[in-house]
Amino acid sequence: MEKENSKKFGMVIDLDKCTGCGSCMVACMAENNIPFREDETDKLLSVSWMHVYRLTNVKPFPDTEECYLPRPCQHCEGHHGHSPCVSVCPATATDYDMDTGIVSQIYTRCFGCRYCMAACPYHVRQFNWWDPLWPDGMEKSLNPNVSVRMRGVVEKCSFCIHRYQLAKDQAYMEGRREIEEDEYQTACTQACPAGAITFGDLNNPKHAVYQMVKPDKKNGGKPKNPKAFRLLERLGTNAKVYYLSSREWVRRAGDNYLKTEGQAKHA
Amino acid sequence: MSTNEKVNEVSAETTEQDDSAAGPIILFFIFGLVVSLVIGWVVFPKILYSRKQQPVAFNHALHNELVDEGCESCHFFREDGSYSGVPKLAQCIDCHEEIQGESAEEQKFVEEYVAKEREVPWLVYSRQPDCVFFSHAAHVKLAGMDCVTCHGPIGESESLKVYEENRISGYSRDIWGKNIAGFKRNTWDRMKMDDCAECHRKNNVNQNSVQTHKGGCFVCHR
Amino acid sequence: MKIDRRSFLSFVIGGAAGTALSPLPWKLTDDIAIWSQNWPWTPVPQKGEVSYLNSTCTLCPGGCGILVRKVGERVVKLEGMEGHPVNDGGLCTLGLAGTQLLYGPTRVKTPLKKVNGAWRKISWNAAIAEIVEKLSDLRSKGLPHTVACISGSDRGTVPELFNRFLTVYGSPNFMRTSSIQDSYELTLFLTQGVRAMAGFDVANADFILSFGSGLIEGWESPVYMFRAKSTLRENGGRMDQIEPRLSKTAAKSDKWIAISPGTEGALALGLAHVIIKEKLYNKKFVDTYTSGFEAHKKLVIDGYPPDIVSKITGVDTATITALAKDFARARKPLAICGRGKGYIPGSLQEFLAIHTLNALVGNINQTGGIWAVPEPDYISWPEVEMDKIASNGLQQERVDGAGSKAYPYARYLLGRLPEVINSSQDSPIQVLFVTTANPMYAMPDTQAVAKAFEKIPFVVSFSSFLDETAVNADLILPNHVFLERYEDVPAAHGFPKPIIGLARPVIEPLFNTQHSGDVIIQIANELGGPIADAFPWDSYDACLEETLADKWDALVEDGYWSDEVFSAADWSTAFETDSAKFEFTNEDIESLPRYNPLKAKGDEAHYPLVLIPYDSMRLASGHIGSPPFLIKSVEDYILTANDVLVEVNPATANEYGLKDGKYAFLRTPKGNARVKVRVFDGIMPGLVAIPRGLGHTAFGRFLAGKGVHYNALIGPVEDPASGHDAAWGIRAKLSKT
Amino acid sequence: MDSALIPEGVKRCPTWQFIIWIGVVGAVMMWGVFAILLVYIKGLNQTNMNNAYGFALWIWADLTVIALGGGAFFTGFLRYIIGKDELKHIINYAVLIGFICYSSALLILGFDVGQPLRAWFIFWHANVHSMLTEVAFCLTCYFGVLCIEYLPLALENRQIDKVPFFHHLSHNMHEIMAVFAATGAFLSFFHQGSLGGVPGVMFGRPFGFREGVLIWPWTFFLFTWSAAAGGPCFTILITKITEKAVRKKLVKDNVIELLAKISGWMLVGYMVAKIIDTWYWAAFTAPSKGFTLMDFYANNPGSVYGIWILIAEIGVCGVLPALILITDKGRKNRIALFLAVLLAVLGVCLNRWVMVLQVLAVPVLTFENWAQYLPSWQEIATTILPVAYGIIMISLSYRYLPVFPQERELNPIEAPVSQTQEQLPEPETPPAGAEPEPSPSGS
Amino acid sequence: MFPFSFEWIWDMGHMVFHGGLWYALSIMGLGLTYCIIKAAVDTAKGKGGYHH
What we know:
The structure holds five protein chains of five kinds. By secondary structure, chain B is mainly α. Chain B has a domain at about 1-50. Helix content of chain B is about 45%, strand content about 5%. Chain B contains ten helices and two strands, in the order H-H-E-H-H-H-H-H-E-H-H-H. The longest helix of chain B has 27 residues, at about 20-50. Chain D is an all-alpha fold. Chain D has a single domain (about 5-405), classed as Formate dehydrogenase/DMSO reductase fold (Up-down Bundle), CATH 1.20.1630.10. Chain D has helices spanning about 15-40, 55-70, 70-80, 90-110, 120-125, 130-155, 165-175, 175-200, 220-245, 255-290, 310-325, 330, 335-360, 375-400, 405-410, 420-425; strands at about 210-215, 215. In chain D, helix 6 (about 130-155) crosses helix 7. The longest helix of chain D has about 35 residues, at about 255-290. Chain D is globular and about 70 Å long. By secondary structure, chain E is an all-alpha fold. Chain E contains one helix and no strands. The interface between A and D is large, with 60 and 51 residues.
């Protein structure tokens, strides 16, 4: 299915560096015209493409440890693009692109059945329960490169696909067909003050993301780097967001294990 | 008439219906059919679209003769690969700081807009909705297509046609196409998603979708 | 032919068939669907030419370079400037949400005057005329010293213009809002004899020992600290966090050492005890470049052995010993202090104790150490010529007592102001200017502050936003926001090198606002005489360009100017004390009260718990209120609906019958509030932690009314050594509702 | 007043009583309509659904009414394809119940989506790989079949039947009903199954996910099977309730018992399959994803999703009714029969509840918690609406159409069909308590 | 739904799925049409009542 020179954009998030500061979330909101309401404390009603989770080792004081885990759309490949959400959409409003590996979401096609939300184990898909409204004048800060979603549709992180589109335009203008690694970076990657997020083409051995996790193509994209893991790898989602952590309990929190299973199952 | 009588016989036994013949019934059917067809095909399109005049009657043909680089003289690419679209007043001012010729429209343009530094509220026939990402660079710079393929021979027009706006959707009629049934003859007659997809399919451009094996969504959407 | 039921039915059926065969139903269905895709109330952002402009963020003292993305004439996004020495492309939550401040609904759109408690629009000329009249009046009465100014900073051209104005007008009462800057300045002054800013070369250290500093909660220059922390980790460096609560910084450290709040100084002395006793200190530095070591040695050896320190701090002796050894043996160990974001100054003795650890390991003015960065000196305006009234006014003692006999070393003591005003019959301040500060929110004991401000007859706010102070002012002269104005950003707090940033207008001012610099120049001109003469510039912009002189072009070009080759002074020349050495102790220090952990206010019997605040990067806690995106990013275990969650240890929760997620009453000697409880393993028993940055009463519906304001629950605790507020908490009681 | 519309040879309650009854139920329905309008105008924020519970009460109601409406297709299948001729005495009612269930399901789907104005995209832009697409197509088509099946009954109304065209139409449709029933059975098999496929294919949700054959997870077959088993039980249940309400025997016992027997054996088969499925899922499928059975049932607040659900579904509402229904004694005992069909119906409801809501409630990411949900009044009102609508449809159909072919035989009227019928107070669907006087024609 | 819609492809999935769909729809459509025409003819012929 994959073509010769197709790309597979993916992300590596170093949880040792991530400080949970929330810059990725806010950068994403500002870049992608995420609406906001007076009360956004019910996170299950709030739209935020990037969400930072707090993980804990569940030990009492003073052995408590915490880790912060930013979670964009995992852009699952599943097997041959069969991500959990794509195949369930009845109206073909979401799709897997073999050239980029990005799971698209077309808001104007979506009619809000929410099957994809039910299918996604990462909760990356969020519904527009309300009309997105901006206080008078604030709509001036909207980014014209990202369409504003209407009430009643599902939305999710797009890996800032508009930046890819714009980068390609620039390349075409300069007579190039291909773009460089640094020409297409997501807003969260760019904003992260700790430099915890790396973005690039997982098919390209020259790209940093490839070098950081060394995805094993023969083994469903599993990382060869022992510090790397993906969320819920055992479900077969074949996600394109990798996490790095030097802490065993953090890596183990990335997936479900039976009590009988050993400590180093993820490797 | 014999069949009618039989009907009457039966109905006379079982119902209190008025007597009537099948002929008139069919006539009524045809009458209803014709009226609704006329409404649907002729009246409805007239009601559906509002007709708007462009603020200034622009003469593409005339301008085309005077510029060196064809369409791109005014509808140009920016350095970052984005496309400027309809020219802003700043561009027009380069030549029209003062009235050049004797056209009344030009005079109106200079007095109403240039002098008052007001942008001209052009109505754009090819305006696509917000969800569409259309890369002029990919089509013109990379694929080397000409403007006519999508926009038609607008460069040769001497005046701007009436802008017809769909009262419900707000789209220009040119998106759906002049033909209310949605048929088209030329590549530029319609600008719906299927028209983009058709050309992409023919040229095997970005046929990356896992679902449809056709164009990936994020090629044209955002 | 009769039209009966049947023929009508036939007509209808024919009509239905015809309609189905016409485009009408199908086109309508499609168009209605398209309408739903383009609902007119869903905004469509206007397209336009994209441009990027360099500028500097002024929302906090961090001094990050920003790249402003514009589409046509709209500001669409703020991004970090790549290659900028401070933030190199990264940006914090507040900076990223900056466009919401520009376009947000809390802007003050025109000068406002309070008439009978209600705001009235007023013209700029009228507003300035009113101020001029008041000022002339006071001056003619010989009371120029009753005019004061509270400013968020005392560096850079705008604060200097305010300061200059006060000076030539005749008032010594220019006040800077207090922060750990004050404490570090004092510390450096007392031990090294320099008036300098503390810079921290975190990136090149290999062991950061942080005494509660929120390195990733917004301490000093937030993005620089984030980056430095990542570099530290990349280089294999270690960081230990000493803090009563598992803050994000603690969580991201290699080791979290929980400590009884307020006893950090004692721990530092305890560490010094082990280091000295084990002779692990840097002999070369201590022997050659320091003085007072023996006295200091005696102090820590006698007074702070690990077992005693353990009792004071709650940290066990093994940890103390091991920590001291690890610290001393590290190649580039660096001890830092100033809790959370560092917005509260803290105890001077604590700062001294912790700073002397750096001296023991000789990591002063070294790579990976603490640097004394010279204060910016690019402003060299001609001396002011004062008339007699001004000279007399300046002879008066400062109203906050800074520099007086009682507080000889402090430059500004804004924290004392409310008490001074409240304890006098008539307010010693008649006119107060407030610029880039929001004291009515940011100062402890909100009620006392409000009472004091109430007593000041005329308060002028220069705020761009309707913040708490502006709401309670008599006149608002709205400044442009940072995206609409020029301003120099003279330094990045905590950054180890001199750097000047330039904030610049990327957009025409949206509203009828004016640059505060211009307003001051105009007021000065209207007042005439020597005051006008001191302000010879046509406009603020002209003043700025002239001031920055040779740096101007670089600033406009790059957005910043930095001294790349700067390195802190060599040990042999670095210390400007009497001994020309680093002084562990000296007469001045000896004259100060001895180290003694400052107690939290309140009596233990009534208030069995201790309330401490904490900072979060997702909550702006300075003079800017959190814009909607920031509040949106706040975790649901901090804020739920309008209720703030306070953290307590499970043991404490058990003891007082508190349940996770349930309401409770929080009482302190200063106030009380209804809160929700979050049972949290990451906090010491006996404590209650509450986030800073909530409980706003101003800043509009996206912020006001959310959560509880920490400053309403606490009062200042005066540090006997410096006069600054050193409160780190207050005694509290938490009970079921 | 409306005596001309009432079928010959049967007695019905007086018009005023009927109008009051319809008025009361209609008021409940209007409450639901009001809630629907709110949802349409203001959006789905009127519900308590959230990003964790994208599917909630409505989808449960949807799956449930479709499963329970399964009586229509399965009875039709038995009657027309298998040739169980006795069932012609209950097929009308089964079709009516099916019609109500499916129209309700479509209505619910109509307001459950976020963008009702473009809900037709599901057809136009169909993604054939989606179970929901399959559901939508088959559901709509099968609803068409049900309309076709219900139409002849409606045309048999005394007055409509007088029109020769309608009379002939009704007759001709009856003639080829087997073709429609077969199509209906085919469609039903697929959409019941596809509804089962909805959770079954969600490989990101280990609680719902099942392995299977080709594109179909086991839940596909289990749903079809349970609908075939539970649907007729629902038909029996509603028939029994209707008989109680009108205090008349409407269907002969042998018909009911035949249907009950078949349901019983279907239920036995379903239970065997369900137990094997549950075992395989607990022993192999879930552990391969890192879950044990109790991970799905333990540690949730208030044990809302405790292991009791599984016990209730399989034991109390599965095996027990199956055992009652396959024994002669059980079927003959009126109380046991009633209890058995009621339990079987509850079992189906519970199964659908679990397969919609618990799938979403179980935390999959290790650092998430059980999601909780309580429906808003708007959701409850709109979910009650189909019940009210169903009662109205049954009341109208019962009053004006010859729904029960055996009614005349079982409830002979002495007096000739004339004015007297109108004067006699005749009980209608309202519960017994609402009856002004005992029915003279109870069996 | 139709071969001219964007999502349509001539593959197994579509042929089976839409094959089934159109098959069912045609049976329903044809059956209904048959009934209506036959009823019209019967009415015209004036057939008497049936009893079922």
